[in-house]
Amino acid sequence: MGTGTEKILVIGANGQLGTELTEALRNVYGAAQVVASDLHTPSHPAGDEGPFEILNVLDERRLRELVREYRITQVYHLAALLSAVGEKKPKLAWELNVNGLLNVLETAREGAIKKVFWPSTIAVFGPNTPREHTPQHTVTDPSTIYGISKLAGERWCEYYCAKYGVDVRGLRYPGLISYKNPPGGGTTDYAVDIYLQALETGTYQCYLAEDTYLPMMYMPDAVRATLELMEADAKRITIRSGYNIGAISFSPREIAAEIQKHLPRFTVGYRPDFRQQIADSWPQSIDDSTARNDWGWKPQYDLAEMTRDMLTNLKNLKKPVLA
């Protein structure tokens, strides 16, 4: 897949996606070839398996220093404030999500960086977007600062590709589910916490209504999609803003029922909070035919397979970390 000539910088490597993507990239390219970076030293053991640097992506000078020092050829820019946290800190979310991206794009334009990966999100859609099988090109009227900042980022990515030839690629991730790391303050976080609470306490209080359908994806599929997109021939990439990718769509009631097949005594209550309004503005399912046609995207996990794998792996962890 990869070669030893690539030198990769992962920004936001301590996050839910960053931790697993860094591990996957090191498996492909070699640990020494992948530089992890974040605001703080990682607490997990994987942080010791390759180079790590402290980096605030808003510090453009420090970013450029690292790119020069390590002769970086690819950047995976994952640092962001997610939807639920962003609503509490909207100005910080805008600054980090937009200005951080611009620093990366400017550094790529001026230097030797050959590829940039930047994650978008289903939060770029809004209340007037078709909610079923949401198409690649459609109404984007986000109502959260997270979605607004990510939509602006999509436009910047397209601009830098068209204007300056920066090879920037992105995915509109749905909610991501992982047993390895807690999520970082998104509206879809319940789909991780529900598994943890099922094992820890046997009960869960959900902040979304039981019939709220949202697009989701198991982390192994998300990591694989990212690597496959970045390895695809540039001639096959027709979307520079962010590809729709889909995998599973389900409601809290359905994920609870799937868990109860393994843990029959598990109970769930529902008490919707401010995140319900956010969820109600997002799609229920995604049309990802463009990604499938351009570079062969295809998910591997459904709800049953993901639930079986999540519970098995969480049981094997000595001290599961609650989100």
From TrEMBL:
<comment type="similarity">
    <text>Belongs to the NAD(P)-dependent epimerase/dehydratase family.</text>
</comment>
<dbReference type="InterPro" id="IPR001509">
    <property type="entry name" value="Epimerase_deHydtase"/>
</dbReference>
<dbReference type="GO" id="GO:0008743">
    <property type="term" value="F:L-threonine 3-dehydrogenase activity"/>
</dbReference>
<dbReference type="InterPro" id="IPR051225">
    <property type="entry name" value="NAD(P)_epim/dehydratase"/>
</dbReference>
<dbReference type="InterPro" id="IPR036291">
    <property type="entry name" value="NAD(P)-bd_dom_sf"/>
</dbReference>
<feature type="domain" description="NAD-dependent epimerase/dehydratase">
    <location>
        <begin position="8"/>
        <end position="235"/>
    </location>
</feature>
<dbReference type="Pfam" id="PF01370">
    <property type="entry name" value="Epimerase"/>
</dbReference>
<keyword id="KW-0560">Oxidoreductase</keyword>
<protein>
    <submittedName>
        <fullName>L-threonine 3-dehydrogenase</fullName>
        <ecNumber>1.1.1.103</ecNumber>
    </submittedName>
</protein>
<dbReference type="GO" id="GO:0006567">
    <property type="term" value="P:L-threonine catabolic process"/>
</dbReference>
